[in-house]
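thought: fold this chain, then report.
action: predict
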Amino acid sequence: MNVVVRESAAVSVRNLTKTYGRRVVVADVSFEAGAGRVTALLGPNGAGKSTTLRAMLGLVRPTSGTALFDGLPFAEIERPGRIVGVLLDASAGHGGRTVYETARLGALAIGVSSHRVDTCLGLVGLSSVGDRRVGSLSLGMRQRLGLAIALLGEPTTLILDEPGNGLDPEGLRWLNDFVVAFARGGGGVLLSSHHLGDIETIADDVVILDRGRVVHAGPARAAGLTNVAFASTDDDRLVRALVDDEVTVGRGRDATTRLTAATTADHVGRLSVTLGIPLTHLSESRQSLESFFLDQTSGEHAARPSTAQGLLRGTSPLVPVHAPTATSTPKATS
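observation:
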């Protein structure tokens, strides 16, 4: 997929805070989304991801802090659609308008031609459904339409809030390929997502929010712990050298002669060469992004694991005392 952008623009967020009364929704959030890179904004439900994006775009007024696009606040960009393409809510389109009408209205607002509408609908695979009503589209097709509108101005940066929602596996693969191609063409992508497996594949950088605060920000490859299993002809000397390098070394879980070290295979390999100690085994494993994410966040579903078992046994306090029987007639509710 060949996606070309005119020039690069970076996003810089500094000390962004949003409060509603005494409730702090976003607290002192700072990060950057670089040009030519895919930056993933992650967090459990309620972590503040959508509020952060909306505050960056001026859709809600930040209590404090700034968000700059190519050095300017969004509100001060003369033609923002040509700098920043935005997809925040795929269901926001008027259900009675057709796909083409919806995209054409976006083009008129941005100031681009109808030819660009045809191009963008083609890019997202909606050329054949231009006369369909938006209300008849699946959520996945609405996501594609929203992305087409975001691309109308040939922006240098894309801001996407959970663009994979409603997409089937084929659609997710297409989206991932598109996002990566856009970034490799020089554009910057900032997207939120719960599809951690996909994010692990496509993201260059990750920003993790928990309860409104940044708990991790940095390269995706650094999100997680690397562990190395090794064995050598002189374990004692190699272990001492690793400890001298402030590396934690332990015994493998399988109780074999292999040792483990909280470092990289490259580190152990180079050290063994320097010391002249032949290695008889060397392997590296990395904690998944999902595991790292769960370690970093508290989430909104923090119930004890036994809760579901209690429900199955009928012993949980969540089960109503007077549950209706199979022959009961449910009471109508308003």
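thought: worth noting. Residues 226-286 form a domain with the Alpha-Beta Plaits fold (CATH 3.30.70.790).
final: tokens above.
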